Amino acid sequence: MSDMFVRLATAEDRPTVERLWLMFRHDLSGFMGQLPNPDGTFRSERVDAAFTEAGWVPYLFVRETRPLGFAFVRGLTGPTRVLNSFFVVRGARREGIGIRAVREVVHRHPGSWEIAFQYDNEPAVRFWRRVAAELAPDAWSEEARQVPDRPDLPPDAWISFRQDPRTGADLPAQPS
Questions:
Q1: How far is it, in rounded angstroms, from Cα 96 to Cα 142?
Q2: DSSP SS3 for 55
Q3: Average pLDDT rounded to a whole number, residues 157-176
Q4: Phi-psi region of 12 (alpha: psi -120 to 50; beta: other; left: phi over 0)
Q5: pTM of the predicted protein model
Q6: Coil, strand, or helix at residue 105?
Q7: What DSSP state is assigned to residue 174?
């Protein structure tokens, strides 16, 4: 296993996270058919929310001084945490970094969790099902949900599970 670590992203990290965000959105554009804005950026309201809104937190994955990826968590003030955005740079994929980063983020916020992904993104489908099976063996669920206010898009997949706040042990997902 690498010497990767997960830490809260600070205001000083924001430019780095914004650059990683462009890579993330570029990756997703192949599955969602989205083009960049005229200035070459992609929509970034989730970056803003992760750094400024209550109930959100940004994480940065780092090896030595090099950024490897990020995660945005929302719902920290409610009953269910949502892994809103998650990204590992291509050069660090297939090393176990993604699953390790998810595990560390989830264990920092015990309770109910949900993670969304697109069925068209086959690598994501395999990854998130593997994550769920590792974090909550026989205690996770998956369902398709329509994207709010976007009937033109296919439904997203949502994985749900719970983690015991006392022990960190995984619990059966509670029905929504």
A1: 23
A2: coil
A3: 61
A4: alpha
A5: 0.83
A6: helix
A7: P
